[in-house]
Amino acid sequence: MTPQNQTSTATATPAASQTDAKQTAWLYSTVQQFSKKHPAFPVGTLRHQIFNEETNGLKKSGAIVRNGRRVLIREDRYFAWLESQNAGAQA
Q1: Which of 19, 32, 56, 89 is most buried when burial is the number of CB atoms within 10 A of its CB?
Q2: Global pTM?
Q3: Strand partners, 7
C-alpha cells in the first residue's frame, strides 16, 4: 500500500508469455515526501534544484514530472542525475 499522495506505476515490456514479462516500478514523490523520505535533501535544496532545472541538467534527466501544479520527483532518475553531477569530480 502506498502512502497518501505517493504514486507508484508499473509497466511491463511486451513478451511472448506472462512469465517472461519484466516489470519496472517507478516511484514518484512530491518535494515534501521526497525530503521526508531522504532527510539529506531539504525542501529548500530540492526547490532550488527544480527552479534551476534548465541550467543544471535536471530537466534533461527526466527526474521532474509536472501534473498540473503538482511537481513530482521520479526517484530513480533523480539519483542517476545526482550521481552524474559528481562524475566529473572523481578524477
Answers
A1: 56
A2: 0.69
A3: 28
